[in-house]
UniProtKB/TrEMBL annotation:
GO BP term (any one): fatty acid metabolic process
InterPro entries according to UniProt: AB_hydrolase_fold, Acyl-CoA_thioEstase_long-chain, BAAT_C, Thio_Ohase/aa_AcTrfase, Thio_Ohase/BAAT_N
Family: Belongs to the C/M/P thioester hydrolase family.
Stretches assigned to coiled coil: none
Protein encoded by which gene: LOC118241644
Alphabetized Gene3D superfamilies for the sequence: Acyl-CoA thioester hydrolase/BAAT N-terminal domain, alpha/beta hydrolase
Residues covered by the Acyl-CoA thioester hydrolase/bile acid-CoA amino acid N-acetyltransferase domain: 40-171
Protein name in UniProt: Acyl-CoA thioesterase 16
Length: 449
């Protein structure tokens, strides 16, 4: 039976077509791509079927492995078609403003009432970061748990791509985790070292493996187990050899990557070690001061001599003055005139933990004078702090820190501002991957010594 609708009814205010249109507009549609992807993949977030010029809030919330909640939100106004496209439309206010495709990630912060000094870190890389993304009517800034969203979706963000394999390393006194990319291999290798906080941090190594590098996250300075690990020069050399001798690693295509104190270790090792001879290295928020002595205990003893230079402002500890001014005595800093492999320095212009800006200037001066400046690439990011991590990680201006000796917890100032720090993380990661690709995949390997 054919239903014929009179022309007059089609245009009347009781038209079923108008009613259908009203129903569609009353059901906003949230689209997020990808719903399951790597943490450094950009999201495409679009909200459709809103009213034209409707005020809405986009909200992101994540519960950490420590059971703390982190949230971010932006206030938007839909266009004439009732659509909000996050990559094109500006957030008017919230935890971020402007056109920010990834604002719901990098502007995450602990929800009101959380513990102080929290840091956003993934411990178990075998599971994803899970985010609940929702759309709310109006411009909302608080009380999200008491609100019913117009629409919501759950997305997963991974550090390990499908096919990446994870292996515990417990060999010759060395502890760490090796991540092998998917495929037959062998692959270029990266020895990945974190800072003076110690322990085993896996997520950057897992992400490097997701981009084609066999990456070994090295454990050292583990609280309560420093003597067991014997964290001295031999420890790092042994770790390098373990990575180099692995069946799935190209022994002639190796790199070091270190952040903070790990960056200091990196620079010392490439200059003074006869065993560690990488094709390139990355130093993130590190320095050529101090020189890493035979054991880290000796190194820390030298640092303690300048403990009186630590400033405390607003209950936040500022460590950047410990090695300032940059010494003129060449024996007190790594002799970077002897660097023979390409080096990438990543520097935050507002680093309050180490004087990385001053150190980078001194490194450039020394290498220019020595004639090996062509091996150095320096990325300086004004407004970025010390903790320059993989892209879209939340910015931490100050967080809790356990001082190894007494296990006392302090609030340590890292520096930086959220937006320029986020930009630094995104840009430096892209350049870091390109640097490793250039020198580990595309460059002619050095002859083995």
């Amino acid at each position: 039976m054919l239903l014929v609708i009179p022309r007059t009814l089609k245009t009347s205010r009781f038209s079923p077509f108008r009613l259908l249109s009203t129903v569609v507009r009353a059901c906003p549609l949230l689209s997020i791509k990808p719903t399951r992807g790597l943490v450094d993949e950009k999201l495409q977030i679009v909200v459709r079927n809103l009213r034209p010029k409707q005020d809405v809030t986009l909200h992101s919330v994540h519960q950490s492995e420590d059971k703390d909640f982190w949230e971010a939100f932006g206030h938007y106004v839909s266009d004439g078609n009732g659509t909000v496209t996050v990559a094109k439309d500006a957030s008017l206010s919230g935890t971020y403003v402007g056109v920010e495709a990834m604002g719901l990630m990098w502007s995450l912060r602990p929800v009101p009432g959380s513990r102080t000094g929290l840091r956003f870190r993934k411990k178990d890389v075998l599971s994803p970061l899970v985010f609940h993304i929702s759309v709310h009517d109006g411009h909302v800034s608080q009380g999200f748990t008491q609100l019913t969203p117009l629409e919501s979706l759950v997305i997963e963000r991974w550090y390990m791509a499908p096919g990446v394999r994870r292996f515990d390393i417990r060999e010759r006194g060395v502890r760490g985790t090796l991540f092998i990319p998917p495929g037959p291999g062998p692959f270029p290798g990266v020895l990945d070292m974190w800072g003076g906080g110690g322990g085993l941090v896996e997520y950057r190594a897992a992400l490097l493996a997701s981009h084609g590098f066999a990456s070994m996250a090295l454990e050292y300075l583990t609280p309560g187990e420093l003597k067991k690990l014997k964290a001295d020069v031999n420890y790092f050399e042994t770790a390098y050899q373990i990575l180099q001798n692995h069946d799935m690693v190209r022994r002639d295509r190796l790199a070091l990557c270190g952040l903070s104190f790990g960056g200091c270790i990196t620079l010392s090792m490439i200059v003074y070690s006869k065993i560690i001879q990488p094709q390139c290295c990355v130093c993130i928020s590190g320095s050529h001061i101090p020189v890493i002595k035979k054991s880290l205990d000796e190194t820390f003893e030298d640092i303690r001599k300048h403990i009186n230079k630590i400033r405390i402002e607003n209950n936040q500890h500022i460590w950047r003055d410990i090695t300032l001014p940059v010494p003129t005595d060449p024996t007190l800093k790594v002799d970077v005139a002897r660097v023979t492999c390409p080096v990438l320095l990543v520097v935050g212009g507002d680093d309050q933990n180490l004087p990385t800006l001053e150190a980078s200037e001194d490194i450039q001066h020394i290498m220019e004078k020595a004639g090996n400046h062509h091996l150095l690439q320096v990325l300086i990011y004004p407004g970025a702090g010390h903790l320059i991590e993989p892209p879209y990680s939340p910015h931490h201006r100050a967080t809790n820190f356990i001082v190894q000796e007494g296990k006392d917890k302090i609030l340590l100032l890292w520096g930086g501002q959220a937006k320029p720090h986020a930009d630094a993380q995104e840009d430096s990661w892209e350049k870091l991957l390109a640097f490793l690709q250039q020198h580990l995949y595309h460059a002619t390997p050095q002859a083995e010594l």
